[in-house]
């Protein structure tokens, strides 16, 4: 199996669905991706700001595994890294199988902590018809599997670029399954 790696990095200062591929992004501790519309100590996602603008931002960094793009393309969708709004595209790492509180060391300095799952929404279908259903599945017990990535907060800042390695540090204690945030 391939060692976990950052395969692409993305940011956008606009509240747009997709993000632009960049050569490098800078993560800022407690805030997120420098210059990204979703950076901040409090929530920046429009639907969530409407509910409580003072809520802590548990969605500072959005990650999607490149294997999801492989799967979607094989199913006939024209989607590329950055199209679904993620900041980091990873390869060789089962993001969805990691517990809440997992820390990912990215490149030389940056450290992020997983806070939960991205809950696929109707914006996916506005991007391409049928995409929302394609990012949902059922496990062997019939439980809903959300495949649209995970969210994280920045614990230690630093630059991240495609090709950077990812080191996984699991949290102490009983693992807690990722839930939508």
UniProtKB/TrEMBL annotation:
Source domain of life = Bacteria
Give start and end of each MOSC domain: 3-169
Per its UniProt record, what PROSITE patterns does this chain match? MOSC
Question: Which molecular function GO terms apply here?
Answer: catalytic activity; molybdenum ion binding; pyridoxal phosphate binding
A Pfam family this chain is assigned to = MOSC
Per its record, how is this protein called by name?
MOSC domain-containing protein
The record lists the lineage as:
Bacteria, Pseudomonadati, Pseudomonadota, Betaproteobacteria, Burkholderiales
